[in-house]
Amino acid sequence: MGHRHGRGVSSAEITGTDISPIQPAWVPPNCQFHIEDAQLEWTYRPDSFDFVHIRALYGTFSDWGELYRQAFRSLQPGGWIENMEINIHLYSDIPEVKDDPDHIYKR
């Protein structure tokens, strides 16, 4: 996502992080990527970012409160956090699944 935004908004400075080395081979000059574990203490100083985007981390964090504390701490005044996650709840029209709150697919 970051490298696409970097191409579209050349005046922005994009910093992306991931725990895996999956970054594209080429990125615009205004983009940089770091291999980091967001569950550890963040190395960014307070007020570093005006936008923090968090995506597809469901099931990753044992302490979401700490993730948000660090994200908010790294925001500049007036900055935004965006968190996009999938909905993992099972929906079914099959009565034995739909009507049984203890069905194996709902555990």
TrEMBL record:
InterPro entries found in the cross-reference section: SAM-dependent_MTases_sf (IPR029063)
Protein name as annotated: Related to methyltransferase
Annotated SUPFAM superfamilies: S-adenosyl-L-methionine-dependent methyltransferases
Listed GO biological process terms: methylation
UniProt-listed Gene3D superfamilies: Vaccinia Virus protein VP39
Pfam family, one: Methyltransf_23
Residue stretches in coiled coil: none
Keyword terms, alphabetized: Methyltransferase, Transferase
Highest taxon of the lineage: Eukaryota
GO molecular function (one): methyltransferase activity
Stretches the record annotates as Disordered: 1-23
Organism of this sequence: Fusarium proliferatum (strain ET1)
